[in-house]
Amino acid sequence: MTSGGDSPGMNGVVRACVRMAIHMGCDALCVYEGYEGLVRGGDYIRKMEWHDVRGWLSEGGTLIGTARCMAFFERAGRLTAAKNLVLNGIDALIICGGDGSLTGADRFRQEWPSLLEELVSTGQLKPAQVQPYQHLNIVGLVGSIDNDLSGTDATIGCYSALSRVCEMVDYIEATATSHSRAFVIEVMGRHCGWLALMGGVATGADFIFIPEKPRKDNWRQEMCSLVEKVCVRAWADVVWGLTGTHSTGNSENARQSSSSPRVLRIDTGTRSLPRWSKIYWPTRMDWHLILASLLWAMSSGGAPPSPTTACSRRCRVSRPSRPC
Question: Which residues contact 82 (CB under 8 A, 6 or more apart)?
């Protein structure tokens, strides 16, 4: 039975359990749809043969299904599940799932003797029917991408999920580089930060936030400074454009710029910009003026004037013949 959230490797688990059971001379049955199938019984519990699991090793998800079962949270639901196990001759249950699935299995194991007694006392089963099933053997296989259960070095599916995280981050990084933007990647893991930690280390993340060790220092300022630095570096070393003032691009400034073209230079060799508002980004009308100015410079045989060096305050934005 597979239960809870699906994880890579669950079909490999089912295949291995079925074939090993047959190899050891046991009957192998699959419970479809997790605990829901265990409560419903009937066609949800099917006997499996060797060839039934052929080709399952490379399939994703879980082919025998998984579903939430509210009925199993109640004793009445667990009583019905116990009855279905006895009627199908099942004395051992292998459950592949995460924290919730194995917690439910442990509770089911603890209540098993009292469930059999209640089935006999209420007349649902005869004493002879429950006699061979006084003990229920349960094997728990941790199928979880979170890698969040003690006693196992690697849960079923965690490394496959880590590989997929790294693959997706590589795709996202291409977009981030193209647009000079920073991206926040959120991965699963519930209360365990293993997947986030290993994924961040493997992909070279600048910041990793995990629940086991929350950051309490000035990480916000550090992040903003890093994002500014990285995004500015991703731009071209020199950005040409007409500049009027730092804050406005009105028509008067545009006319002044048209008659006397100036240059805006972003020098990546100095410190990062204090604020993004200090960069003047031309409007659509300004781009027409830029093109006209460049054509004028080319036709006159001249070249745009060279920008001045940075001032004593080492500003990122420098202008010719004009103080910062």
Answer: 108, 112, 115, 116, 119
- Tell me the C-alpha distance between 176 and 166, whole Å: 15
Q: Do the bridges between strand 28-31 and strand 92-97 make them parallel or antiparallel, or are there none, so unpaired?
A: unpaired
Are the CB atoms for 53 and 19 separated by under 8 Å? yes
The correct answer on CATH 3.40.50.460 for the domain covering 158-220 is yes
Full pLDDT tens readout for the chain, 324 residues: 999 888 888 999 999 999 999 999 999 999 999 999 999 999 999 999 999 999 998 888 899 999 888 999 999 999 999 999 999 999 999 999 988 889 899 999 999 999 999 999 999 999 999 999 999 999 999 988 888 888 888 899 899 899 999 999 989 888 888 877 788 899 988 888 999 999 999 998 888 999 888 888 888 888 888 887 766 655 443 343 333 333 344 444 444 444 433 333 333 333 343 444 344 445 555 555 666 666 666 665 554 444 444 444 444 444 444 444
Amino acid present at 197: L
Q: Which amino acid is at 71?
A: A
Against a cut of 0.90, is the pTM above it? no
How far apart CA 319 and CA 324 sit, in angstroms, is 7
Phi, psi of 265 (to 5 degrees): -120, 130
Q: Give the integer Cα–Cα distance in Å for 157 and 288.
A: 56
Q: Which fold has domain 10-142?
A: Rossmann fold (3.40.50)
CATH 3.40.50.450 residue spans of the chain: 10-142
**Catalytic machinery residues:** 146
Residue ranges, CATH 3.40.50.460, the chain: 158-220
Name the strand (E) or helix (H) holding 46. strand 45-48
Residue 154 near residue 138 (C-beta atoms within 8 A): no
